[in-house]
Automatic annotation (TrEMBL):
Membrane-spanning residues: none
Xref: Pfam families: adh_short
SUPFAM superfamilies the UniProt entry points to: NAD(P)-binding Rossmann-fold domains
Cross-referenced InterPro entries: NAD(P)-bd_dom_sf (IPR036291), SDR_fam (IPR002347)
Organism: Haloactinospora alba
Domain of life: Bacteria
Protein name from the UniProt record: NAD(P)-dependent dehydrogenase (Short-subunit alcohol dehydrogenase family)
Signal sequence segment: none
NCBIfam families (UniProt xref): PRK08303.1
């Protein structure tokens, strides 16, 4: 695709690992300058206790062909976010793409607990990390994003269906709220020639997920012995390429207010996952997981 984003400035909030890291890298591969933010730094690891850092992501962005800039930021702190946006303004004079990917809820979600059994403080903290961070970031970044027409906001979520319960009250509320935030921002950005879209990956082979199953990206299929449906999983590059394709599309406004997926965008824009396949988690979920059919990714890649 060349470098269609060579004059594009992007801010990926929550770029340390997983979807956020991949989105930052794929934006960089198309030539963008990408501000990579989060709490996990080489000098001070966050409470996620993971080895990935925003500096590591920024280096990958630069190696991919863009310019990566690491800025330590706690997106729950409005003053830190305001300072971040001022820095982007001072250094670039514009912001073209905002990716709200802050999460940090994995250690807080209690999947076997109903609402009244779930630790209340953990649930409220999850909502602060997964919802408040997005609100704070958009509040401070949108004045810069709307300075010129064509700005894009991507809200990274889980799923496109707002009618299906995701199995945990606080997790479901957070991910559903993110979709609604994309719709609300779309309504406000549309008259200003801006676009907001909710974007979801499928069964994501994030660094943490690979560690849970004790595999790497090279031998990930061995994890199907523990979780057969992992056969239809996708690497973070897939959703990263979806985000980059949206950012590079001059007609991206066609998606304004929509909740879209990595697999649907692959069909629209013609990209593949890192291994050259096109996993279709949506169809796999409907035809295999929900029907109880024998797990197999044949015909879904």
């Amino acid at each position: 695709m060349g470098t269609p984003l060579a004059h594009t400035t992007a801010l990926v909030a929550g770029a340390t690992r997983g979807a956020g890291r991949a989105i930052a890298v794929e934006l960089g591969a198309l030539g963008a300058t990408v501000y990579c933010t989060g709490r996990s730094t080489e000098a001070a690891p966050s409470d996620m206790a993971r080895p990935e850092t925003i500096e590591g992501t920024a280096r990958r962005v630069t190696e991919a062909g863009g310019q990566g800039v690491a800025v330590p930021t706690d997106h729950l702190d409005p003053q830190q976010v305001a300072a971040l946006v001022r820095r982007v303004d001072t250094e670039q004079g514009a912001l073209d793409v905002l990716v709200n990917d802050v999460w940090g809820g994995d250690p807080l979600a209690e999947w076997d607990a109903r609402l009244w059994e779930h630790d209340l403080e953990n649930g409220r903290k999850l909502l602060r990390r997964a919802v408040d961070t997005h609100i704070i970031t958009s509040h401070h970044a949108l004045p810069l994003l709307t300075r010129r027409p064509g700005g894009l906001v991507l809200e990274i979520t889980d799923g496109t269906d707002r009618d299906t319960y995701r199995g945990s009250f606080f997790y479901d509320l957070a991910k559903d709220a993110v979709i609604r935030m994309a719709q609300a921002q779309a309504a406000e950005l549309g008259p200003l020639s801006g676009t907001a879209v909710a974007l979801t990956p499928g069964f994501l082979r994030s660094e943490a997920m690979l560690d849970i199953f004790g595999v790497t990206e090279e031998n990930w299929r061995e994890a199907t012995a523990k979780e057969p449906h992992f056969c239809a999983s996708e690497s973070p590059a897939y959703v990263g390429r979806a985000a980059a394709a949206l950012a590079a599309d001059p007609d991206v406004g066609q998606w304004n207010g929509r909740a879209v997926s990595s697999w649907a965008m692959a069909g629209e824009y013609g990209f593949t996952d890192a291994d050259g396949t096109r996993p279709d988690w949506g169809r796999y979920m409907a035809e295999v997981v929900l029907t109880g059919a024998t797990p197999s990714d044949e015909g879904y890649r």
